[in-house]
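Obj.: predict assembly geometry.
Materials: sequence records (below).
Method: joint structure prediction, all chains together.
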Amino acid sequence: MAVSERSPVRVRIAPSPTGFAHLGTASTALYNVLFARQRGGTFVLRVDDTDVERNRPEYEALIYESLHWLGLDWDEGPDKGGADGPYRQSERLDLYKQHAVRLLADGKAYKCWCTREELEAERKQALAEKRAYKYSRRCLLNPPAGRSEFTVRFQVPGGEVTFNDMIRGEMRFDAELMGDFIIVKSDGYPTYQFASPVDDAVMMITHVIRGEEHLSNTPFQLLIIDALGYPRPVAFAHMPLILAHDGAKMSKRKHPETNLALYREQGYLPEALINYLALLGWNPGTSQEIFSFDELVRVFSFERVQHAGARFDWEKLNWINGEYIRALDDSELARRLRQFVPELDESTICRAVPALRTRLPKLAAAREYLDYLWTEPQPPDLNPEAAERVRSAIAALREAPWEPPAIEEALERAVEASGAGKGKFYTPIRDALTGKKVSLPIHYTLALLPRDVALARLLRATAER
RNA sequence: GGCCCCGUCGUCUAGUGGACUAGGACGCAGCCCUCUCAAGGCUGAGAUCGCGGGUUCGAAUCCCGCCGGGGCUACCA
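Observations (raw structure tokens):
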């Protein structure tokens, strides 16, 4: 029996705090939030921290931080509370224990005293005989005596497990092929395959939206829910995986783009990342590419979610991010730029913004355009003609009002008088000011520097050496 | 090995039997604009629709086989 279609939608994400906040977590969170907002439902954040070895509280904080940065907020969670708390699995151990005891009493689970070595041997043997491995049920049929350390295994009843996936339709799995799996580890902690379905059932989760790596875990979890007599979630949705650029699964070690903190540090706008993530795995069916969060809530649907994994592409992200940056107004762009150029005062940033806007695929790129403001470049080696042009620029600049338009006018008069082209005229100036081949337009490059500093750099470049 | 998911330009994708000389976007190339770099405008290259068989008057679209990629197969989640 399924939870009624009319019951309020409840969805959840269940990240594990075992490392930095992951891109996949953001992606899954996004689709959950979209669906919840669309249906007026509740979005739950549950922390799946049953891996005692790898969990760290600071990683949990990182998850909150990253999701908040992205503007994704939850309705219930460890930090917010809610009627179905606690929301940390490590604080729900009694609950899992009760359920395990119930399954044991009902004869739907049994204790297993096999050692890891014995199990490993079973697996190896199956492999050698080219047989699909399935636990032998030794401890159910003929348990060894005199052992104290045990796990609890679920006795798979066999048959067939079917469920509805909102993306892939009716899914069908043969439970005869599934071995009896461990639901309680020897340290007393539940396994993911047990804690997750128990919580989903008890928290009355109606739609389980998660990554495709969980597709084949679903029948295991459904078997648990059925055995416990709980209603099943109405539906599942298994989102296509985000692949690395080389087509492999993203790994934390090999692929820095898995780390959410990176996007913030590099100056990707959260709304741009959200937009990109939405498009990676879903398609609106129109040519629209830029979506606000509210638009996404309106048009998102699981019917248009891709079935195949999508490769992560920095170029496309950069483009989308650039679109968002260009759409920002002056004061907002200046505000967001602040933390990326702490060397500069407010007014300098504000004056740079109009020239910066079309040049930034990400906010951190502003540093390359502006670092000459706090770093003195090497004086260039100018040929006599270039030095002469710089001298005439100095003369023209002495009485010009120190603003981009006035500077541009003064310079253009000097260019005309010199008979040279703008290129020949401006290049040595740019070089003297920044030491680079690329900069903001020359009048901005000058105006952002205090006049005396700018003139000093130009003067120095004309000096005989 | 077993089970499951998937396979259209380099990448993300549109496409659900005829309107497909396979469309769009990113990227790439050229031109225009231009002091450099961007942005913007225009133009262009780029996909025998993984392969092989069917079905059909007609297939990227339906069926079968194969190949390739991914996931699960843990006392990780």
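Conclusions so far: The longest helix of chain A spans residues 23-38.
To do: check interface contacts against the pulldown list.
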